[in-house]
Amino acid sequence: MVNKRAYKRVSVNDIDRNQLLEAALTGGKTGTVLGLDIAKNEIVGCVRWGTGQFERPWKIVNPKGILTLIELCQLLKSKCDGFSVALESTGTYGDAARYALSQATISVQRISGKAVSDYKEIFDKVPSQHDGKDAAMIAELAAFGKGTLWPYTALSEIQQRINHQVRRIGALRTQQTQWTGRLEALVAKHWPELTSELKLGSVTLLKLFETYGSPARALADPRLALNLAMWGRSPMTQEKVSGVIESAKTTMGLPMGEPDADWVKEVACETLKALREVRTCDRKLRELIANDDVMARYSDAAGASTLAVIWSKIGDPIEYSSSGAFVKAIGLNLKEISSGKRKGELGISKRGPAQARRWIYYWAMRAVQRPEFAKWYEEFIRVGSVRSKSTGEHRKMKALIALMRKLCKSLWHVRKHEKEFDYTKVIESIPEPSSKRRRKRKGSNKQTLGPAPNPGI
After folding, report:
1. Are residues 301 and 421 in the same domain?
2. Quick check: helix, strand or coil at residue 445?
3. What CA–CA distance (Å, rounded) separates 16 from 5?
4. How confident is the model over 56-110, as pLDDT tens digits?
5. pLDDT for 292-318, tens place per residue?
6. Distance CA 85, CA 230 (A)
7. Is residue 34 classed as helix, strand or coil in its secondary structure?
8. 384 within 8 A of 398, measured Cβ to Cβ
9. What is the pTM of this model?
10. In angstroms, rounded to a whole number, what is the distance separating the alpha carbons of residues 42 and 60?
11. Residues spanned by the domain of 413
């Protein structure tokens, strides 16, 4: 692509079919790829012939020009060996074109958007990036074997219902977090002592503000003590009820006017509404998972909502060739940035869907409280803190991330081999300290295979 104005676009309606066929007969060898860079209103395509030469980029109106694009693809498919179309994996603007290509039995490949971005200066020695160049880079990366097959496949009805609830629970949790943040600021301003008696996200606190809006209004109601005792999931103790009432009487918060109290009531109402909707989604997901023979097998171990998010955002673990590939798709694979004498710490890549990692983190938070992980968790924190001279809190987070990786690998293994999920097999046996192992090897003539790995990520 070093010709003058190499990226000048040609309208797809102005393409000469006869010239395209002649070019296909000359360069249409194995590995001919049409790369597509798809935006909301325009598709830019670029053909890379099997000989390594490029056509000028095509300009297609999205979605009106998709039928013309399909016609040209079928023409190239009939004359080229192994013709395929490659798209980036980002966004949803390309779904209509991908569906039409799959319906026309044209091979579709997916190229990572990160790979395209990293390739821009290697491609033509210029660090610029635009639609025409992107289409050419997508085609070349696919020709080099950097793509994966990406045909459109319709989801089953139950999977569509699961996806619906996963989208809802993600959106509603975001709303709940936003409203809770607003409420936290208001409580700290007008009634800061309350959070020492009640948790910020508790139903009792939310109902207290939804009903009254201010400490003064609450104290004016003679039924306040009775309401506080009955609002929660379990009856509140008299001691805690007295503590809440006393904090309302002696609060050092700023006085609240009627508009301030009304705003607090509205914020609490919205927070409580989002919380209820999240719980409704969670209940519906449990019902849907119970009707799926595969996911129901692991719902007790991992949690119905966690499984639903994994299947919706990542896919069935059995579709991945290895546990490492499954972990990498989630973004829990390890990366290192080291140079010369500087040895960077390992960290996760975070390249997968954030929602999946968030729910797997919740899974690890629940799992780490099980007795099967108590010894491993303590040893992980102790050994790591001594070696790296880091704080215990830092090691606790590393332990949770390590457990997330182990749980995902175990889920892939049991799904692949159709076994029941067993928490006792998630963590390997913890090896003895290295000094004891050396003493044992020194006093023994038996051949050993070397020390077992230390518990870690």
Report:
1. yes
2. coil
3. 20
4. 999 999 999 999 999 999 999 999 988 999 999 878 899 999 999 999 999 999 9
5. 999 999 999 999 999 999 999 999 999
6. 62
7. strand
8. yes
9. 0.82
10. 6
11. 295-336+343-434
